[in-house]
Task: inverse folding
């Protein structure tokens, strides 16, 4: 609230400067974090990495320290929704995000209770890229934790998940074939250019 009349302030209890969002720039003990039990220090553990934060740390300080650590996550805060988003830095189904309080209740206060979709957070685990390849009549299934897959000199960079309406079963099918004509053409051009260089050098030396 940037300004308010005395009458409205009297009846509502609100005043100039009242803010209904978490203030990321002041000490967490004064940052309007719902449910935070005040204590001198807070300890949280993220993916087996322990952090200790004093009560005078700001939410920005906390986010920066966690993001710069080897906990393997990136935290961002939306001022519009007043929500925190946590994303793993690596991809794949083997990646998990585990956040627990060790001292105080800072983690639960800012993230909510794990498994509570309404007032807490739910972890959406990553997915692997699974590709079935048939080459020379032999079928093989490739599983990778990233969207970039390389096999037999073929590099694939996938940008979107397969949609359910593709091929009626969520699959994308494509065929890769060797273009021998282009290989021959490029080799012939290389030989031609090489011969021109040899001829030029020969004339220059003579």
Result:
């Amino acid at each position: 609230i940037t300004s308010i009349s005395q009458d409205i302030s009297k009846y509502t209890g609100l005043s100039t400067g009242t803010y209904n969002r978490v203030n990321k720039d002041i000490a967490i003990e004064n940052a309007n974090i719902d449910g935070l039990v005040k204590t001198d220090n807070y300890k949280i553990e993220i993916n087996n990495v322990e952090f200790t934060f004093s009560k005078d740390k700001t939410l920005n300080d906390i986010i920066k320290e966690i993001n710069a650590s080897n906990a393997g996550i990136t935290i961002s805060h939306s001022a519009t929704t007043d929500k925190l988003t946590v994303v793993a830095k690596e991809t794949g189904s083997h990646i998990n995000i585990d956040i627990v309080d060790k001292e105080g209740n800072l983690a639960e206060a800012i993230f909510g209770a794990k498994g509570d979709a309404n007032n807490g957070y739910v972890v959406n685990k990553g997915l692997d890229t699974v590709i079935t390849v048939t080459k020379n009549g032999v079928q093989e299934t490739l599983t990778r934790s990233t969207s970039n897959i390389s096999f037999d000199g073929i590099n694939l960079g996938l940008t979107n998940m397969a949609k359910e309406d593709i091929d009626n079963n969520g699959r994308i099918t494509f065929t890769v074939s060797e273009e021998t004509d282009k290989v021959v053409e490029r080799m012939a051009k290389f030989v031609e250019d090489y011969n021109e260089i040899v001829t030029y050098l020969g004339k220059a030396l003579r």
In short: The first strand starts at residue 41 and ends at 46. The beta strands are 41-46, 49-54, 73-78, 83-88, 99-103, 129-135, 138-144, 148-151, 154-157. The chain has four helices and nine strands. The mean pLDDT is 83.
